[in-house]
Amino acid sequence: MDRFGVSPRRSFGQHFVVDPNTVRRIARLSGAGPGDCVLEIGAGLGSLTLALAETGAVVRAVEVDSGLAAALREVVAEAGASDVEVVEGDASVLDLDKVLSGSQRWMLVANLPYNIATPLVVDLLRDAASIETMVVMVQREAGERLAAPAGSRVRGIPSVLVERRGTARVVARVAPSVFRPRPRVESVVVRVERSPSPESLRLPPETEARFELLVRTGFGQRRKMLRRSLAGLVTSSGFAAAGVDPASRPETLTLGQWVGLARAQP
Q: What's the whole-model pTM score?
C-alpha cells in the first residue's frame, strides 16, 4: 500500500488481507485449479488474486477503486500472471453477461467488502446462473446468517434466499489480525454451492416474486407473529394449507413452508 500511495477507503468497506497464508488458505478451500474460471470481486492490491493465479485458474478480478485497479494491473504484470484480467467497475452494476463471458461455468472467490457482501451474494445467486460455487470471506455475523438453518436465532432474509438456490456453510474462521486496517469484528469464509430446486419447490415467476415478498415482509417484522406481520398477504386458510402455525416467528419456518405460503393466494 505504501508503495502505491493507496489506503483502504471506508466508503468501499475495504479491509486488505496482509497475511499470505490466509489468501493461500482461501484459494485452497475454493478448490480452484487448472481449467477453472474464477471471478474475484474487491481484488484490492491482489494478494488473493495472485494466490488464485498460482492454482492455474483463469482469474477475472473486479475492483471498483480506480487507484487500486491501476496498482493491481501493475502487480499482476510484475508477477507474470498472464491468466488474470483486471476489470475496473462496480460489481453491483456491471454487465454480468459481459464480465462472465468466455465460459459457462464460474466460481466466485473473494474477500468481499463488508458493505456489499450479503446483497451481492444474494443477487449473484439470482442473476448469475453460471456461477456455480462461491467461496467468500465476509464479516462473521453476515456469514453465519447466510448459512443459518430454520430455527436458528440468526436466520434472516439472506438465509432463506440463499437456501432457495443452494446450500451454504461456514468453512473457516479468520482472525482480525490478518487485515489492514484491523476490523473490530471476526470474519469467516463461507462456501455456497448452487443447486436446482426440487420439483416440489419450483414456482412460476409470479409466485416466486410473492415468495420473496413474504420472506422480506415476515423478517422485516421478525419480533411479530406471522399472522400479524403477514396480515393481508396470507389468510388463515393459507397458513393451514402451508402447514404453518400463524403464531410462528419467521426464523422457525423451513424453506418448504415459505414456498407453501407463497402458493397460498390471499
A: 0.92
